[in-house]
Amino acid sequence: MDRRIELRHLRYFLALTEELHFGRAAHRLHIAQPALSQQIRQLETIVGVELFRRTSRSVRLTQAGAAFQPRARSLLDTLAADLDEAGRVGRGEAGRLDVAFITSATTIVGEHLREFSRRRPEVQVKLHDGFTTDVLTALERGTADVGIVRDAEQRDDIDLSLLASERFVAVVPTDHPAAEGDRVEARALAADPLILFPRSAGPKAFDTNTQPLRNAGIDVQVTQECSHWHTIVTFVAAGLGVTIAPYSVTAPLPPGARRLELDGPPTVSQIFMATRRGDDRPLVQAFTAASTAGGPARPLAPSRRPV
Amino acid sequence: MDRRIELRHLRYFLALTEELHFGRAAHRLHIAQPALSQQIRQLETIVGVELFRRTSRSVRLTQAGAAFQPRARSLLDTLAADLDEAGRVGRGEAGRLDVAFITSATTIVGEHLREFSRRRPEVQVKLHDGFTTDVLTALERGTADVGIVRDAEQRDDIDLSLLASERFVAVVPTDHPAAEGDRVEARALAADPLILFPRSAGPKAFDTNTQPLRNAGIDVQVTQECSHWHTIVTFVAAGLGVTIAPYSVTAPLPPGARRLELDGPPTVSQIFMATRRGDDRPLVQAFTAASTAGGPARPLAPSRRPV
DNA sequence: TCGATCCATAGGAGCAGCTTATTGATGGGC
DNA sequence: GCCCATCAATAAGCTGCTCCTATGGATCGA
């Protein structure tokens, strides 16, 4: 007789605490009265104490029963909420998403995030900024669920989906000869020292970034290597050289630097969302899908499950 | 197929989250592997999401499963604690006890309470002080579980058990002729105005309290009626008259009043614990029993129930 | 004293959950 | 490259628990 407690016991117990009448409580539970008597008795042997004091004329809660009632009630409520929550997580409506992104994409990530949060207000997004290598490492190791990188190369284990494109622009010191106009031809920068991130930080990104110069027949030589765009444009403003940068990292510019549109065949920088290949988790799917237009993603009336 | 969730599902789910292997988890649960597969599948249809991603080589938690695990764990732990608590309440080892007592018994109630709290540290005692009528009313109405009264008369619906006895003493102003000694004969107070509570506040208590005077052949006439002993002895100290009081309410006395032992046949005031007749709740029994000597009331190793 | 009410008990039936046996898929070893 | 080991899913039958109906027994009002 070492039966274990089941939720049935709690459900029956609570019905009886409310009705204080075996017949009515049983009716409400859609069972016959003897079944309820049995189960309540069983619960009492499990707990080891009398929960109801009954005569043939009345049913009253004992102190132990009175103490147990709110706890049982709360337990069932909690469980219902937990099931609901698990369901939402499973459908990608709630949960936590780790997003790793390169610092130079902060503006675009922010825009995307605002849209995603509107669609999935219950999802907690954890952000991690870093260099391209950090982002990819986080993705590989599972530290991040989604990575956001710029001009990445294709890989077997990673899916890329385009998040945004933006043109490259030139950034020159305000005392540069070309700084008086709004536009510049790449070849006009041939003699200037070039400030840029090291190629090792992202070969494909580096090559894309310098494409306008190579299109103009310039032999690309980086005079000053910096890791952060913020540092690069600051150095430009200080008159140490010029750079070619994706538009979004040049707004705003520090005083002393000036942005110029590039003449010639347009080259774009592409920002990708990167996910592990085969990662079909709903939240990941929802995040990458948030850039595409679409209706509200969550059902209007979340179904409440009986417990 | 609208089966309801049961604790069995949670127990099986948790075992599987820990083992991440159907065979081992089933073994630990003392069931066969297919039974576990069935129940997990059933749980998943109830929740509406996949909780484990399984291949024939591996079993992994999904995000929904990972989100549900700590909640399920906590639910079972909570339930175990709740059952434990209900058991303790049922055995009178925990819970709440409402004790109504007369103000003049404060000292004795305090002593009794200290002993009771030592024995039942988990019981929360709620105290209500008032006059004898308040105490009895609270007991009748169920507002109080135990009442503590002084020199009460027997009643059909209330059980009395003696808590303490104490002698009566006289209290006189320090300028009273008898105040020079330590003792006094009751008849020496015959001419003094008597300060006491009204007889209507408790006829039996009043009669007991005035017994020493009546033994001395004095016709008892209360000159000044007060409800609280504190007020009575203050009036005595102010020289308005004398009184006869149970010892405990005369310690300490305000300046200006002096306590004298009474000569003659001793009369005692009895303090009773009053309970509703037939109230066999363990806490009530334990409280009334706390005055009698006895070992520790709670088992040394409370049994932990499996859930 | 009789009847009504209501909880407990008794005995039987149906089904949920368990069992063993087997299938099917995956991955490692020779 | 084939075979075997591993492991979860499926199939089919059995067991035991929960529920049922019928009845007993206690209490209260008329």
UniProtKB/TrEMBL annotation, chains A, B:
User: What CDD domains does the record tag this protein with?
Assistant: PBP2_LTTR_aromatics_like (cd08414)
Q: Name one Pfam family in it.
A: LysR_substrate
Protein keywords? DNA-binding, Transcription, Transcription regulation
Q: Which residues form the HTH lysR-type domain?
A: 5-62
Cite the Gene3D superfamilies for this sequence.
Answer: Periplasmic binding protein-like II, Winged helix-like DNA-binding domain superfamily/Winged helix DNA-binding domain
Q: Which family does it belong to?
A: Belongs to the LysR transcriptional regulatory family.
Protein name, per record: LysR family transcriptional regulator
**What species does this protein belong to?**
Actinacidiphila acididurans
